[in-house]
Write a structure and sequence with these properties.
- With 231 residues, the chain is mostly beta strands.
- It has a single domain (4-230), classed as monomeric porin ompg (Porin).
- Helices cover 11% and strands 57% of the residues.
- It has a twelve-stranded antiparallel beta barrel. Strands 2-3 form a two-stranded antiparallel ribbon.
- The longest helix is centred in the first third of the chain and has 16 residues, at 4-19.
Length: 231
C-alpha cells in the first residue's frame, strides 16, 4: 500500500510544525553545498554531473523539527526529472549522556516529472558520542515502486585536530521486493574546515556488482568533491 496522503500533505506539515505555535521557542539553521556529483546511497543522482544543494531546518526546544532540502538531479531522460526536494518531520534528542536518537519521516519529491517519482520513508538513527551512528530506513513505496525497501548504514566520524576529520560509512539497501535484488556500498571522505562556516569535502564511493546491475552507469566507483557551508 502506497503512502498516498503523504504525497500531498507532508510539505505543509513541515511548515506547520516549525511555525504553528509561537509560544514554542524554535531555532533555524541552514546549509548549502556545491558538489561535483550528487551521490546518494552509493549511486549518482545527476549522471555524474555537478549539483547545487541547499536546505534549512527549524527545530523546537522539545526536539521536534522540520526541514526542507533541495538539489538538482538528472535521471533517465524520459522522466524529465530535474530537481529534488526532501521534506522531513521528526524528533531528535538525547537518550543518555553519550547516546542520541533521531526519528523522522522523509518525503522525496520530484516536481514537473512525466512519471510519479515521489515517495516517503521512515528513518531512525542512533548516535554514540556524536561520532558513531547506526541508521535504519524503511518504506513500503521504496524508490516509488509500490514495494518494500529497507536501508541500513553504519558510520563513523574521526576528528583529526581542529580543522580536519575523516568520515566513513557502509550501507546496504534491501530492494528484493522492488527489484529482486539488493546492494551494498561504502564511502570514505576527508573534510577540511578551512574557514568557518565553509568546509571542503572529498569523498570516495564504491558499490558492489549488484548495484551496477540495478543502476547501470550510476553505481560503481567514483569520487566527489564539495564545497559546503552550515549557518
Amino acid at each position: 500500500m502506497r503512502i498516498l496522503p503523504l504525497r500531498t500533505s507532508l510539505p505543509a506539515c513541515v511548515f506547520l510544525l516549525a511555525f504553528a505555535s509561537p509560544a514554542v521557542a524554535a531555532t533555524v539553521s541552514g546549509n548549502a553545498a556545491l558538489t561535483t556529483d550528487y551521490v546518494w546511497r552509493g549511486t549518482s543522482q545527476t549522471q555524474g554531473d555537478p549539483a547545487i544543494q541547499a536546505g534549512f531546518k527549524a527545530a523546537t526546544s522539545h526536539g521536534l523539527y522540520g526541514s526542507v532540502w533541495g538539489s538538482n538531479v538528472e535521471f533517465a531522460p524520459e522522466t524529465h526529472a530535474s530537481s529534488e526536494f526532501d521534506f522531513v518531520v521528526g524528533w531528535a534528542g538525547n537518550l543518555a549522556d553519550d547516546w542520541a536518537l533521531d526519528v523522522n519521516l522523509t518525503h522525496y519529491r520530484y516536481p514537473a516529472t512525466t512519471v510519479d517519482l515521489n515517495w516517503s520513508e521512515l528513518n531512525g538513527t542512533v548516535t554514540w558520542k556524536q561520532n558513531y551512528w547506526a541508521q535504519l530506513g524503511w518504506s513500503n513505496d521504496a524508490l516509488a515502486t509500490s514495494r518494500n525497501g529497507t536501508y541500513a548504514q553504519l558510520g563513523a566520524r574521526v576528528p583529526l585536530g581542529e580543522q580536519w576529520r575523516l568520515e566513513g560509512a557502509v550501507g546496504h539497501y534491501w530492494l528484493d521486493d522492488a527489484y529482486g535484488d539488493s546492494y551494498a556500498h561504502a564511502q570514505l571522505g576527508a573534510v577540511w574546515a578551512f574557514k568557518a562556516p565553509f568546509e571542503l569535502r572529498v569523498t570516495a564511493h564504491a558499490t558492489d556488482d549488484s548495484a551496477r546491475r540495478l543502476f547501470p552507469d550510476l553505481a560503481g566507483s567514483r569520487v566527489e568533491a564539495a564545497l559546503q557551508a552550515s549557518f
